[in-house]
Amino acid sequence: MDTNPLHQIMRPSSVAIVGASNHLDKMGTIEYLNLVNSGFPGEVMPVHPTEKEVFGKKAYPSINDLDHAPDLAVLVVPTSLVPEMLEDFGRLGTRYAVIVTAGFKETGDSGRELEQEIVDIASRYGMRFIGPNCMGIINTELPLNISVMPLKRLNGKLGLASQSGTYVAQTLSYLYDRGVVFSKAISVGNEANIDVVDCLEYLGQDESTKAIALYLECIRRPDRFLEVAKGIDKPIVAQYVGGTQSGARSGSSHTGAMAGPDYVYDGLFEQAGVVRVDTIEELYTIGWALACQPASKGRRVGILTNSGGPGTAIANACDKLGLEVPELSETTQSRIKEYIPPHASARNPIDLTFHIDMTPMTRYIPDILLSSGEVDGLIIHGIMDTGFFSYMMPVIEKALDAKGEDILKAMELKLDRLVEMPWKYDKPIVISTFFGREDHSTRTFHESCIPTFDSPEKTAKAMYALYKYANRRFGSRPVPKEDYPVPEEAKDIMKGLIQTMDSGKIALDEYTAKRILRSYGIPTTKEMLVNSMDSALGAARSIGYPVVLKACSPEIQHKTEKGVVHINIMDESGLKEAFADIRKKVPDSSVLVSEMVKGERELMAGVTYFPGFPPCVMFGLGGIFTEALKDNVFRVAPLSEDDARSMLISISASNVLGSYRGMDPVDSDALASILVKLGYVSLHFPEIKEIDLNPIIISGERPVVADALFVVEAWNGGK
Amino acid sequence: MDTNPLHQIMRPSSVAIVGASNHLDKMGTIEYLNLVNSGFPGEVMPVHPTEKEVFGKKAYPSINDLDHAPDLAVLVVPTSLVPEMLEDFGRLGTRYAVIVTAGFKETGDSGRELEQEIVDIASRYGMRFIGPNCMGIINTELPLNISVMPLKRLNGKLGLASQSGTYVAQTLSYLYDRGVVFSKAISVGNEANIDVVDCLEYLGQDESTKAIALYLECIRRPDRFLEVAKGIDKPIVAQYVGGTQSGARSGSSHTGAMAGPDYVYDGLFEQAGVVRVDTIEELYTIGWALACQPASKGRRVGILTNSGGPGTAIANACDKLGLEVPELSETTQSRIKEYIPPHASARNPIDLTFHIDMTPMTRYIPDILLSSGEVDGLIIHGIMDTGFFSYMMPVIEKALDAKGEDILKAMELKLDRLVEMPWKYDKPIVISTFFGREDHSTRTFHESCIPTFDSPEKTAKAMYALYKYANRRFGSRPVPKEDYPVPEEAKDIMKGLIQTMDSGKIALDEYTAKRILRSYGIPTTKEMLVNSMDSALGAARSIGYPVVLKACSPEIQHKTEKGVVHINIMDESGLKEAFADIRKKVPDSSVLVSEMVKGERELMAGVTYFPGFPPCVMFGLGGIFTEALKDNVFRVAPLSEDDARSMLISISASNVLGSYRGMDPVDSDALASILVKLGYVSLHFPEIKEIDLNPIIISGERPVVADALFVVEAWNGGK
User: Fold this and answer.
1) Could you say which residues from 142 to 171 on chain A have a Cβ atom under 8 Å away from some Cβ of chain B?
2) ipTM greater than 0.90, yes or no?
3) Which of A53, A139, A509, A648 is buried most, with the most CB atoms less than 10 Å from its CB?
4) H-helix or E-strand containing B205?
């Protein structure tokens, strides 16, 4: 476990910082001041060529003048100085560094060379480093704060690894106002040596981290990401912003990232059990909710409010997310009615209506709800005490002729019973309030790790995450077996093919493609390849009418548009006509005689390749509307059976796979097996660059591949 | 214009308030204190049976003791007292009231009766009132503040009408922190007399209101809503929360609302040019952006940031919303490069990277961008001054041995050039910052009406709204012609039908349904109804093979499943076989001989009815996946041609209507015309309770209705 270098980097006993001076307009200075003032228990050594002291602490004129090798070196210096300084630290015996300095691969070719130089230096000295082009690291447990803002709260629960330094270092006041506290936070910068996957692994091992948040512009090692994520038994939340053209371009300027499309990342996250969010606010606040509340064991949400609008908005948002807001039993309603006004509703949402006394809301009703067995989690809107009155203060001071401070003190609610309830009942509580830290109850929730949101709808998303987490990451996520055998027939076909082809790309003919599929046990239409009318007649007899006739040659794409596909041939006369027609249009082509598979449901599957990614298996709706609807999902190969099954239920139109319009449910074992096997085909033969099985027709309940396209690429092939 | 009672209610010269006392734990008292302290220039008269004075102001023992009739009566009293007091005010000559008291129709049957009682009293005295079960009204222009919190800023620009009182009265501190200020705000409560549509009309007329926000749990008069909204030339933003089961139940407890499903409201909003949002935060902040910035004239967004992560997140969010983040021209990039560090990117996003000097960001670069002609709007992330340093203060004071206040004062940025730019260039600016009002630059943006968001992604949504508004609500929105003639044939068919049917519901046979459609000029398959083999043969000859044969009788539903549909009949022998088969299965049924229309694209249309709504025309994808995909949209009848066209492009799979897979584009005039006419069919014959045209087959480019179902309901019909 200690092989991950972050265990050392995040817990140094001495830190040298190069780039701190007595000038407050330098980032190095600000980071130095925060490091010194964070309560860091170790030694801090500023290095500066001319300053004798840096804000009262002795400065060393150069790295070589240091008394001893620091555990960690921090560089906030001009770009050109980095290689030499890193080398100096290496020579001195320092093994870990944080390189804040920018100007490397994110700037283009010369920066890329310079980055390679520091990678080589580190490798020579066995050094590991974060950055370059990063903002620093935070450990609120030690504490250690190498960032541009002070720590106001320690001992947080949310671990962050971020490809944006801002989200580690410049949002601390934002997070403080919202009650979110990091356990550890790492700005990874350009990831030249340590990447976000290393951070994920470290945060997975770190005991003080209860949930992990990732801000991502790309994942440089998706296969390793998947492996690491699957091994972590904590909620992982990710925001990925590289999936659009503009996002990818911006990310590439920012950290030199090579991004991939959203749908591939969606698949990867789904497979890895990672909750994807759309905004940095959700990354922090949903991450925080997952870090500090028990998971919701079911979909049933209780909503307690003193205001109808927010209650309705929460109920509506829960419903849209697939949570339930169950109407409470008569018994529970009658217990609640003791504490609410006569015209108020106890059905759920429980709406106390405008109500000055907060006791029912902060004590009695939460207790009734959480002990009822009728809800799995509780959302409360509208608890407030000093916030309301501090805003009202000018009016109230005047009215009462009293001192504001005394009034406020008297207003403070006792919330000690409420803030214990999530742990007492093992059910989450999430708070919605329009008041910030000026409100004593909001401050109390922050300090008690009850997640607090500044508007009602956000609580529903947090509760959904608390539910989804419980039902997903506690489930089994088997790693797919690695030793799937390569069928001999497929091996022979591919070997023969590559030996005889020129360098470049070719499409396989349909017959060959389907032979490969059948060798893996993937069901296709029964078929025979023929070159004469007589063999065609024989083939049709053996397959049985009705049959399909198609021209079959790698040269012929878009067969339907070219009129060389004849379907639903009922008898010998029809076959003769069709055969003659195909021969007339493409005289040299072989002809494929296939079984005519009937079924209204058409699906599709395939394999797609993205630079830097393992092959991705695709599954989706087939048929006429395919391109218009793009109802498809992706998973990284190899797939487990569970991965494949999750694909089947992840398409929007997944209910066509069930008992749909009087049809039989699809054999989902057979369909899932096609997807799993397709993954192995792609891994066994890296020469294959594209696979499309379209359509897969559901015949009765049985999926049958009716057409298949393989594209193979070879360089310096057999010839 | 002055017939809308809100012009009087929002601008009274005298207000009597019943329910204020000297006890601060009463809502009436709090509202009274805020009214008195808001700066209201008129007379305030507290009424209380026992208190002689209420916080220093003379109280009247009863309504009848008032010196004169106040312009406006405010009632915050026990439910049972409301009718008598309203009557007292009516007798006294007061014509307007705000009834804050709850306990009416939202509580059930007896409350509903009591509500009717006050409606009747008001009607007797010609009174108009807001409520009951509301929280009050705010006019920041007069000012007038009948709410539970003080006004800290006046003369806002956003008008709000809300079915939640909280969103008018209890979010003023929340809004203050976010820079949002109401022009007028109205809590409508149960809408017993004045409803949200009246408020919409009023806010449309109110000059100080520049954009309108609506919080909705239901719309009680959708037809009038549409009419009023179409006549308003200001952006309208709406949050609707009644569209789910839980939302509807909660809303009904809250304000006795009868809600409708989301898809109907989506259609209504689209038709009315209303921007729908999902959260109260968006309602306020996007409403505010629309109220105070010029519209964006195009999709092109410039992004200026000092931090890569937020810049990338904004670019990604813009892209997902359909905005563009264009790469800037070489010329513009080189002008920008004068002001940014060498390793920073000028491509767009322009990323200054971590940078202490804010001048490039607040002055030079915005000027270059907005004058370049290359962007239509600008999003800036990361401007800050005192916020950062006030959080850093403990560290800095110690380091500099200086007073915090002096340091902060010196930090304040001069932003006067920047905040003028939106008006100088007629292009919107939207700000993203992680700092709140503790930051002087955030405060400056609030006061200068530059919309400011607390995280990056939110700015993209605001910019999208500023763009969508420009491109939608400035376009023509013709009102559909009212005088569409009722075809004589349809009139005769329906008349005959209703005269002969029993009370209840019946389905029309397909032949009759299509005759009605054809009488409106809606294209259907050519067809003839026959009762003998000979007439069938004659019909087929006249229509031309291939043909379709179907049993045709109102009693036979689900014809395909019953095996009484034979398609693709090629010749007389096939026809004879099919006819015999149908006669065998349903001996008494007539048989429909239809043209066989071929086309891969199957669509559907229909009319659906929801309680309280005019008939809604539906359009969507047909075919096998219809129920699975639910890719359909709705509009309220009657439809304009534009409404119908907007339906065609609103389905997800709309590109199948273009040149799709080598097929011809659909004749969209013909398709739109079917939808418009369908609207008139439903309006002409209220007895029709359901219409389904499924499938509409696209034959070549021509839409043809291939099957049709009408359900008709009559009470005490002709028999």
Assistant:
1) 148-150, 152, 162-167, 170-171
2) yes
3) A139
4) helix B196-205
